[in-house]
Design a protein that fits this description.
Arc Repressor Mutant, subunit A; single chain; 8 helices; 2 domains; mainly alpha; elongated; about 60% helix; 3-stranded antiparallel β-sheet
């Protein structure tokens, strides 16, 4: 029997692009791809979230908040679904008989049903297509110069916060670091406003 990888095949890629040594930006609300590509406003197309939620519930039963956090974790913080997306989808899946609810310690815990597993297996090609597209979309966003920007910001965040936390809030270097960061932010704003110097 084929066993699904817990990271859904996304883990290796996300670990490389947004691992512990990188600073991952959340861009679940939408982003621009490379020049000439249309703007994506959602990580998933309409109706696709139900497949992903069922895939999560096949791993183990979860309540609504756990589903939101699990999706965020699976995608390394790149996407966080809203409660307004997750809970209506769960209700739909329950109405269709693909999940059942068990009250546990005052919380609704969702379990995939045999019908839900059969539906997921029947549409496994759809799920694979979703994962392939997510990988391609994030790679498009994070690659090239965007990857360099991500790495540069990761280093800035690391050298700023690591020492600050270690030395404590009273360290006399902190005000100077704050001034440097403020100046850098102003210069970056000017670059975006005027464009790079030729």
């Amino acid at each position: 029997m084929h066993k699904h990888r817990d990271d859904w095949g996304l883990g290796d890629f996300f670990a490389e692009q947004f691992g512990p040594n990188a600073f991952a930006f959340g861009f679940g609300r939408g982003w621009h791809g490379r020049s000439g590509r249309r703007r994506r406003t959602q990580m998933f197309e309409s109706g696709e979230v139900k497949y992903v939620i069922l895939r999560l519930l096949k791993e183990k039963p979860r309540h609504g908040y756990e589903i939101i956090k699990a999706l965020e974790e699976k995608m390394a913080g790149c996407y966080t679904p809203s409660a307004g997306t997750v809970y209506p989808t769960l209700q739909l899946l329950e109405d269709q008989g693909y999940v059942r609810v068990v009250e546990t310690e005052g919380k609704k815990v969702y379990h995939i049903t045999p019908e839900g597993e059969a539906f997921l297996d029947e549409h496994r090609d759809v799920l694979e297509e979703i994962f392939d597209r997510v990988r391609d979309t994030v790679r498009d966003f994070a690659g090239g110069s965007m990857g360099e920007l991500n790495s540069a910001f990761a280093r800035l965040a690391a050298v700023s916060y690591k020492n600050a936390w270690r030395k404590g809030p009273g360290d006399p270097a902190i005000p100077r670091v704050v001034e440097i960061l403020k100046k850098a932010a102003e210069e970056i704003e000017q670059v975006w406003a005027k464009g790079p110097e030729r």
